Structures are given as C-alpha cells and as structure tokens.
C-alpha cells in the first residue's frame, strides 16, 4: 500500500525574517557608520501616491544631506530600536515557538566605512549578544551578509558594487564575521534579493547611476551584479573553510510571471521575464552564465567585464540552497496593457482578474507560491527556503488594545497551504520565515503604517510613539501553526 504523504518534515524551520536597516535603529551608536539605507527619506503619501515611490538617491543628494542642506526624515535610521529591545523581541519570538530567526548583519556596524583596516569591536559584540540571546531559546540564526546595507562610504568613494575593489572589502567583512560567529551561526545568505540590482542599483549595491552618465542603467547593474556573483562565491568558499557544517544560500526576489492571454507572444514574453528573474539563481546555483542571456546582452548593448578566473570561481563555489522572497505574481501583456498594478520592484503589469489586491496594489496569489516552488525544484533540485512572505496592511488598535488582523491570517494560511501542497509534490523545503514578524519600517516606502507583524509596535509614520510591543490576533494563530508543524491552519 502506498505511504500517505504528510506535510512538513519534523525538523522544518519555522520563524520570521527582518533586516537590520528596517529594525535596528541606533544608526550613529557605538561606532556604526552610515549605510545606503540611512539616506532613503520618507515621502508622505500625499506626495508620492500609494504606488509611486523610488528607492534610488543621487550623489548630489547624499552630499547635500551630509552637509546639512536638506531637512528630510530618514525612518530607517531609527527603525523600531531593536538595538535596545532585542531581548524583549527575541523573548516574543521564542513565545511564538520560532525555530529560526532571519536577520542581517549591518555591514557598516562592523566596518563603518566599508574599507576600514580593522573591524569595530562594539558592532561585533552587539551581534554576539543577539546570537547568545537566540541560543538561550534554541532559535537558529539565519544571517544575511548584505541586505541593502552597503556602507555609504563605499558608495561615495568607489560607487559601490560597480567598482571591482568592493569584492575585496566584502570578502574581508565575510571572513571577519564567519570567524567571529563560527560556533553560533550555521545558516548564511550572501546577498538579499540579488536581482534588485537591476531595479534599483543604489538599493542593491550602493551604485549611484548618475555618476555614470554615459552608461545605461542595465549596463551598470549587470556589471555590478557580476561583482556580487564573484563575491558570493568567494564568501561561500570562505564559509565552508571556516565553519563546520555550514550551509550557504543565495536569495532571490521571485517574480513568478504569467502571460495575460494564451497569445504565443504573451507566453514568450512571460517566459522571457521568468528567465531574466531566474538568471540570478542560474548563475549562483548552476555556476555559470546561462546561454539565453547572450541575446539579451547583445540586444541591450550590455558587456560584462570579467577578469581571468571569475568564471572558474563562480563555477567552483555554488550555493548549498536557494532562498527567496515571494509576495505576489506578475502578469504581462504584449498588447500595450501595462501599469495597471504595482508591486515590490514592479511598477506596471496587467491586473490579473483572478486575484485579489492588497492595500498597496500587490496582487495576492497563494497558488503562485506553489508554482514558484515547483519551478525552482524542477530547475535546480536543491533545497529551498522561503525567507520572506507576508502581507503589508493597515492595522487598527481597538480601545481595549487588541488588534484584529484576520486579513493577515487569511493571507498566510493560504500561502502555507500551498507550501504544503508543494511539499507533497516532492519539493525539498527547509523552512519558512514570515516577513516582518514584528512591525518594521517598510523597505519600499520607509513608512510604518504598512505593517506586517504578529507583534505591533507603537510608532507612527512620523516616528511618534512609545515603541511598546503588543500581540495581534495573528500572534496566537502563528504560534499554533508552529506548534502543530503546519497541520492546524
């Protein structure tokens, strides 16, 4: 008799995910240097509209900020003050039953300028304290080396990842933290959403496009990401040399793309967009540039300058597993239809009549997550880890302090159901870290009112509030999901 296929494996890693630049705060404490996220200002809704924003800044703007010539507000500098609340927050994560907590190390907390001769001991000690607190509750850290936190001085002096010299600064940083935390961290990611480079070179790699007026954005982005590919491979090599039983993953913002119609032109366009998205994992997992990019590079006048040995490094040190974020799917049309919906890094796309839309214009597609998992599994055959998935929404605090968020429970429940279906399909899934288990500053809009958490943080878009933490209804729901290993949703 055939054995019944159950859901998630017993050691499935349930948890939540954050980024240093969105939670830590303390941007100028204990020797930390400025990073690129510290320069991204808050733009009120009435000025930007709900779907219209930019994560890029210019070289002149940075200099004006540093010279005190502008009076803007930078919410990511303050975050939710995890720097001083980490014990309280980790205790809440432990109460939820977390097996894993994904966080990033703020590179400029360790090397304030990026190219410093010696690391900042106070920064190293902070993460020691965080990892020790996690260990107290048997929570595994999953650590991202670079999560939109390029030291600002690397942007100003070298133009970020466009300059090959940054590879050396990154590998020195990686070696420093691998050596320091080799007994505390066994799961690492190199670059968060590495494909964001083609959408926002400043966010993805501290690259100031306006400094290179004679080059296209695509030319700049693909050159910079090549340097990240080499750096990722070298970091993977170092991790395996320094840390016993280490596992190193890549991280992609998965943009599962559908054709709007069964017109073959739409189908080809969707296939093309999926290839442009999966190019990044093709390189980091298969260890080589895929042939389908040759035509794209040629038709867009993109030349990637490589040094002797780059291809061999990329081939020799692929990642151990694939991690990715998934929030929505994208629908494309070749019939002149576009700009009907918004999304994370996607401005445009055709409205999918079969899907609901979030308050921020993101199309909600739980079954698309199953499609993405199956595609990854069939393409690579590597273990997979969903390290971001969640719903940004407006939350209301009732008079008695309670926060009812059935919309968040519904969103997560439907996505976890599809994860379970994918596991039954044969997908090797390591774990799931819901994005923003505690409310944090939005990456894309730098606002606080776009809330993801199971834990509410009392702070508004203007930075006012007590910073008190409180539980939403979704807190107890997710706690039970973890306790039952996803069987009770």
TrEMBL record:
The active site is at residue 388. GO terms for cellular component: cytosol. GO terms for molecular function: beta-glucosidase activity. SUPFAM superfamilies: (Trans)glycosidases. The keyword Hydrolase applies. It comes from the Bacteria. Keywords: Glycosidase, Hydrolase. InterPro entries: GH, GH_1_N_CS, Glyco_hydro_1, Glyco_hydro_1_AS. Gene3D superfamilies: Glycosidases. One of its GO terms (biological process) is carbohydrate catabolic process. NCBIfam families: PRK09593.1, PRK09852.1. Belongs to the glycosyl hydrolase 1 family. This is Glycoside hydrolase family 1 protein. It comes from Gracilibacillus oryzae.
